[in-house]
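Researcher: Next sequence.
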Amino acid sequence: GEAPGGKLLRYDPQTGEYSLLAIPVPHQYIQSLAFDRERRIIYGFTFPAEQVFRYDLQTGFPVVPTKKLHL
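Model: Next structure:
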């Protein structure tokens, strides 16, 4: 079957537990991440479809633009 996609996880060092935040782009692997601490937003880039996404830690809502990058 197809891979479900790259997962964003939250780790709680006090309990040692992980929790799933989101699979922002189904069937795509997350290749790189950047974190905006001030806005509490995670930005990511996927492979192989080369899509950019953002995940807002305050709302828990992933946003994936509809256009793919053409590099």
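Model: Residues 50 and 69 are 6 Å apart (CA to CA). The radius of gyration is 13 Å.
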